């Protein structure tokens, strides 16, 4: 959507009118189609919503360049960071921009930031709109934003506009920008394999550079419990892989503060009642089927105790379960200021609960597994709400074919469902039921898929043909290419009203076969593809998918991320970048 002035987007974000200065600039600059090829200096990722740059002109950036802004506790570190980046990055594009650099205009001395609402907190739906104007004359550029968080997005854009040594910046340029979706995230599983604090901070920094705003931290699971919960210290002491693989309260505080300084919310997930085998190390009496082999010999898939190795479900019939869990929930709400709390509630495996004697007795007396889950939800959800949190669950709690709760147990005004199966079909089921949705469809957004399975002595590989029973050897194969991610329309098939209930999306990196050694390459630059589609869409002004046009830009952006310290994997040989169009599937006319 190419607009000047305030307007409600077709999706989720309400955009207030921009400042008078920006309005004047917008009216006086010709609204020409944006020029965002590699021959241009305006190679910003994600692509801005509106760019006006009538003439390919640039001028030098002063060696004493400064950024002026009203004081904001979390914006000041960002200003220092972007000031240093603008002065010292000296990025050299893979293809030299075809831009006339003025030798007569004075260097750009200052970026002046104006913020309307300095009090706005970082929470879902906060306004991230900004406008940026760099004139051909004068020594000051202007960044206008409604909030400090929008100013951070504009600072990232400005940093990507600077290139060369000595540094230059495009002039006669106006950008208006705002996200299509308010929730744009990365989910990282730190239970199956542990990631150090620095790995998480590097991921958050790269997210901010891609204008992503939610780090969904799947911190615990059946495999390990690495989070030190002050009121329940035994959970980590006995459930973590080791004393050097625990996130302390000070670690969490560091990560949360780092997120604030980068405009990224840190959303904690304590998965339960399933995926809780690690809890049994401290509290074996509250966990059903813990430490059992996941697929009993001679049993069918329906009789499994877990969907992968690592068994254990909390027992909803044991009062001690809620004593421990409520302590965890309370402490997590203190450690994480985020207003969303993710309770998991996915993959309830009937065989696990049925292995417990007390649950066997419950079923023998006419109880059902769905009633058991309803008991659990009814005993925990009201407590989470009492802590002023909105609850996020995986879709299974409502959509599972065997164990699920009635919608009456999930108040729509306080519950968000995260979809991961069946693409847009399950998204539609969620929004048709009146719930808000976060989209993480495994067919498009699961980054771990296609790297093989991790089971030992698997007979499917015992064949001379070398074939595998599953694409890529994993349940969700094949590998999700950046094009697959880029071309996914998360509101496909939804009515306009239904689409309004889609908050956004998250890629997910489950860590059965990932750890810090492969973290960057698993996430980037594929996640950059989602970042652009959720920020400005995946279509051009005519409505045509623009993934072909995006290839060259993503090559350039990946190269710049690498130079900034993110080990993003390549998407093409460098030869393709140096020979534009020669690596296309179809020759351009």
From TrEMBL:
<dbReference type="GO" id="GO:0030203">
    <property type="term" value="P:glycosaminoglycan metabolic process"/>
</dbReference>
<protein>
    <recommendedName>
        <fullName>Beta-hexosaminidase</fullName>
        <ecNumber>3.2.1.52</ecNumber>
    </recommendedName>
</protein>
<dbReference type="InterPro" id="IPR029018">
    <property type="entry name" value="Hex-like_dom2"/>
</dbReference>
<dbReference type="GO" id="GO:0005975">
    <property type="term" value="P:carbohydrate metabolic process"/>
</dbReference>
<feature type="active site" description="Proton donor">
    <location>
        <position position="347"/>
    </location>
</feature>
<dbReference type="GO" id="GO:0004563">
    <property type="term" value="F:beta-N-acetylhexosaminidase activity"/>
</dbReference>
<comment type="similarity">
    <text>Belongs to the glycosyl hydrolase 20 family.</text>
</comment>
<keyword id="KW-0326">Glycosidase</keyword>
<keyword id="KW-0378">Hydrolase</keyword>
<keyword id="KW-0325">Glycoprotein</keyword>
<feature type="domain" description="Beta-hexosaminidase eukaryotic type N-terminal">
    <location>
        <begin position="44"/>
        <end position="161"/>
    </location>
</feature>
<dbReference type="InterPro" id="IPR029019">
    <property type="entry name" value="HEX_eukaryotic_N"/>
</dbReference>
<feature type="domain" description="Glycoside hydrolase family 20 catalytic">
    <location>
        <begin position="181"/>
        <end position="537"/>
    </location>
</feature>
<dbReference type="InterPro" id="IPR025705">
    <property type="entry name" value="Beta_hexosaminidase_sua/sub"/>
</dbReference>
<dbReference type="Pfam" id="PF14845">
    <property type="entry name" value="Glycohydro_20b2"/>
</dbReference>
<dbReference type="Pfam" id="PF00728">
    <property type="entry name" value="Glyco_hydro_20"/>
</dbReference>
<dbReference type="InterPro" id="IPR017853">
    <property type="entry name" value="GH"/>
</dbReference>
<dbReference type="InterPro" id="IPR015883">
    <property type="entry name" value="Glyco_hydro_20_cat"/>
</dbReference>
<keyword id="KW-0732">Signal</keyword>
<dbReference type="GO" id="GO:0016020">
    <property type="term" value="C:membrane"/>
</dbReference>
